[in-house]
Design goal:
- By secondary structure, the protein is α/β, with parallel strands linked by helices.
- 38% of the residues lie in helices and 13% in strands.
- The protein is built from 5 helices and 4 strands; from the N terminus they run βαβααβαβα.
- It has a 4-stranded parallel beta sheet.
- Helix 1 (16-30) packs across helix 5 (133-157) and helix 2 (55-63) packs across helix 5.
- It is globular, with a radius of gyration of 15 Å.
- Bound molecules: 4-nitrophenyl phosphate.
Length: 162
């Protein structure tokens, strides 16, 4: 069966989007539906290419029981063709994705992550990079609840139940 592909995008690809990817992977494994998905994350910036997530991201994921392992990569124009869903963490990420050539041909699949957050629909996932540990936990909690609703949406729209 055709897999559904999902790409999470932030600026640096060391805080928010690798955390989103890790939470998504953890949940689809728990739900027994991981074989139905291809999942990745990337950054619009090129500052940290090849690096593992920020140590604070790794510490937070571990504290919340979520395995995390990702090598930072930059968003590429081909991602627009490759992925079925492209989820931006904030409005700046979204606007940078929409600047890629031919993005308007793919506009329907490019959206803000928190379009799926019932407690803050369309809000941004705040950038925790310049803050403290509490910012990372706040990001985790936003992504954890939002991801549950995003996965429910995917299950409904792609007839995925196992
Ligand atoms: P992220 O956070 O976009 O959630 O990965 C950031 C990581 C690095 C930088 C900015 C934000 N930076 O400026 O290096």
């Amino acid at each position: 069966m055709e897999k559904v592909s999902v790409l999470f995008v932030c600026l640096g690809n060391i805080c928010r989007s690798p955390m989103a990817e890790a939470i998504f992977n953890h949940k689809i494994q728990q739900f027994g539906i991981a074989h139905r998905f291809v999942v990745d994350s990337c950054g619009t910036g090129n500052y940290h290419i090849g690096q593992q997530p920020d140590p604070r991201t790794v510490k937070n994921a571990r504290r919340n029981g979520v395995p995390i392992d990702h090598a930072c990569r930059q968003l590429h124009v081909n991602d627009l063709e490759t992925f079925d869903y492209i989820l931006a963490m904030d409005a700046s990420n979204l606007s940078n994705i929409l600047k890629l050539p031919n993005a308007s041909d793919h506009a329907g699949k490019i959206m803000l992550m928190r379009e799926f957050d019932p407690d803050g629909k369309g809000h941004e996932v705040p950038d925790p990079y310049f803050g403290g540990d509490d910012g990372f936990q706040q990001v985790f909690e936003i992504l954890d609840r939002t991801m549950f609703h995003f996965i429910e949406h995917l299950k409904r729209n792609h007839a995925i139940d196992s």
